[in-house]
Specification:
Elements lengths: L1 H15 L34 E4 L5 E18 L5 E17 L1 E11 L2 H4 L11 E8 L5 E9 L4 H4 L12 H6 L3 E11 L6 E9 L15 E9 L22 E16 L7 E19 L2 E11 L4 E4 L2 E7 L3 E11 L4 E12 L9 E14 L3 E13 L5 E14 L1
Antiparallel strand pairs: 1-2, 2-3, 2-19, 3-4, 4-5, 5-6, 6-7, 7-8, 8-9, 9-10, 10-11, 11-12, 12-15, 13-14, 15-16, 16-17, 17-18, 18-19
Length: 412
Amino acid sequence: MKIWTVCLAFCCFAVFTTPVNAQTENQERTGQIGDDLRFPALPFYSYGSGLGLTTPDSTFRLNIRFRMQNRVSYVNHDQDDDAIEGVVRRLRLRFDGFVGDPRFLYAIQLSFAPGDVGELNEGDNINIIRDAVMFYQPNKHWNIGFGQTKLPGNRQRVNSSGALQLTDRSINNARFTIDRDFGTLIYYLNEDENRVSYNIKTAISTGNGRNWTRNPDTKLAYTGRLEFFPFGVFKNNGMLFEGDLAREQTPKLLLAGTYHLNRGVQRSRGQLGDELFEARDLTSIHLDAMVKYNGWAFQTAHLIRSADDPVTVNPSDETDFRFIYAGRGTDFQLSYLFPSNYELIGRYSLQTPSASIRDFSPEIRQYSFGLTKYIWEHALKLQAEITNTLEEWNVEQERKSWYLRFQIEIGI
């Protein structure tokens, strides 16, 4: 009965919501969605791109945006009691603009939800700061950044969590992601909607993740990404959000790959995870593709992480160990957006740990099906999702779980 209550709530919201297809006052879209790092010339106020203020002499610009995700989930585990969870999944506040000259840009993003900040343990820093980065853009091709922000990882990771079709990224993005870090970024962008285009993105960073100040050393992380658009870039910067909301009139394709070398990582997932007992070198390879055409959208990703001797042992207790999650994962995601702005989404994910940690981690298969109602594109939407997860352990043990979730996303 509880499950049907959640379903009924979603239907009521969807049916009685006015189907407004809101457009920006500026017909040329900014493409600034969620927490991506695009800095268009914003007007004083534009729907979907925040509230902007500019000084009369145009020497300073401040744009303010927020977004919030509220969700309720019905969760069923094999070995645990059923539960209903209601949480503020994300609550973000962002400021961006320029100072003195439009070529000198800044972006600040703060997070306040418990899942974003995390539990504060002794010796840890409060994780409110997500982005604090400055950019110099001498022309439309070059971006040079310094500070803390996302590294150029795979497409789903780089896209804002507010621009997702389902309520969360895939289990493989959660496990194998290249996350935020502090460092220097250099991007060369060569984008055109009507001809072959490409982007080259590079970064050198500390490798330990956001707001990390423990055990500083001289070992760094190196990231490079190439994005190739054989038929030109997506309409309205469509590579920055999932789903074909722009309804591409001709097929558009993105092929991309990322290589990431993190020397002397101190955490189990590079920029995330528990602190290891001994530093290790970590390598990640991310391959991804995206296709959009006439309301249809398909994306796939193959993520690989490897490390020599990923298991580290406590020198004071041989029974205590921590390990880098080495392995690979594959995602497939397909969707169709109806003219009524309802969208159906399906996703399949397979996650396989490497042989060296197979005794400690299961192989995971996950199946997700979602229904989204876009009221104001990704800025205001209603999402319902059902996900089934199967874990297969080496000890011939199987664990099953599933959840049914309803989520509201709102932001400017």
